[in-house]
Each structure stands twice: as structure tokens, then as C-alpha cells.
Amino acid sequence: MHNFLPVLALVFNAFVWGVSWWPFRQLHGAGVHPLWATALVFTLAVVGLLLARPGVFTRTRAYPALWLLALSSGLTNVAFNWAVTVGDVVRVVLLFYLMPAWSVLLAWRVLGERPTRTAVLRLVMAFAGVVLVMVPADTSLQRLVGHLSGADLLALAGGFCFALTSVTLRRLHRVPSESRMLAMFGGGALMATASACTGLLVGFVPALPAPATSWVVLALLLAAAFLLTNYALQFGAARLAAGTTALIMLSEVVFASVSSVLLAGTVLDARTVLGGSLIVSAALLATLRWPRKA
Length: 294
Description:
The structure is a single chain. It is built from 14 helices and no strands. The protein is mainly alpha-helical.
């Protein structure tokens, strides 16, 4: 029972993020662009957090370094939510989970942690998996760019920003969790709103439609779910080993894949399965702790 609740909390977090593509697509079908949907959902989450923790805003202002966390986390959510709404869910989630590979490079550059041989192996496996997922068998390297969709690029960018978020969280581990939570939700709200407004001015993002009970209620439920998942993540991660947390979070790939097959009729071809296996295996290697020589 001591470990059951933390594990359950992390599985709940992975489940919500794994199936979040479906409510975002429902909002998109109601005329709410993914950028507006992200801005609305995360703004509601910020309001809920401020109501639950009245003094958190004042306390958060004491940590200006949280702006970097807000930026990276905000871009992560903008890219991921947009990608899973308009792209192939399984493909997007697999490309997003290139995050452990990006983390190796970022930790080397930002934290000064030189990659080990195991880390280099993870990089090779992860990028080989990306090639299998993204590049059709009959495509030459010269024609590769033509096969990259907007959702593919958003997924890759989202995974990179998520890796930057993870590295930033490690640097800010002494900051209170509620302040980090406010920075992450606030960053999502700010970056999504700024992106939606820019897209509206340029002309590739439609205006937010008139409020309707159906999609407003869905947005409220999604905001509440994201708040609960963040609490669940912090509850579980604080009570389990980091490797265990990362391993459980990989179940998001399973939830996303199964829900996509059941709800969207997605068909998984052999290259996607093989490439996904390499990406997930690389992420699994990141959860292991190898004994060091004396």
C-alpha cells in the first residue's frame, strides 16, 4: 500500500496525457483551434491553482529563474497539444518521447554531465527509431524533408522543449513545488495565448468561436484533469525512485496507442512498431542505474 498510491498516481498522470488528444480533437471539431484550446485550458488551471493556493503568486515572484521553466513548459504544451490534435497520435507521441535523447545533449551542455557509453547508445537507438517512424521505406534522404508534416515538426520541438523543462526542473529542485506548478501552467497559458493571437493576426488561426455549453464544459473538465495530473505527478515522483517514475510514465505511449487504435481507427504498420520499440527501449535504458566502478 505504501507504493501502490504513488504508482497509481503516476499511472493516472500518464493515462490523462495519453488520451488528452481526444478532448482536444473534440474542441477542434467545435471550432476551437488547439492554440485557443490550450490557452483556455491552462488559464482555467491557473485560476484554479490561485484559488486553491491564494499566496502562491506572491511566493513565486521570489524566483525569477522560473521564467525559463514557464517558457520551456509553455512551448512544450503548445507543440504537443497542437500536434496530437492535427497529426497521427501514435507517431506524434513516439516522436515526442525522443525527449530522453534530447535530455542527454542538454544535460551535457547545461549541467556539464558528459554522456556515458550507455547514453550514446540511447541516442543511437532513439534516432534510429525516429528514422524508421518518419521515413518511408522507398524514400531517399533528399526527399526526407518533403515527408515531414507540421505535426512531426511540432512533436520533435515539443519533445526537445520537454527535455529542456526536465533539465530546468532539476536545476530548480529547491523551489517549492506549487511555485513550479504555477510557472508551468502559467507558461502554458501565456505561450498558447501569444501563439494564438499571433496566428490570428497572420491569418492561420481562426478566431475563438462564441461560447457553447458543450465545449466550455469540456474545457473545464480538461483543466481540472490537468490540475489533478500535476498533483498526481508530484505526489508519485516525490515518493518513488526517479527511474521508477520514468518507467511508469512510459505507459503514456501505451495509453495513446491503444486509445488511438480504438477511437480513431489508427493502423500500426511494421516500421512504426519497430521504430517505436527502439524509441521506447532508449527511454527504458534511461530509467536504469548502472553500477559504477570503484
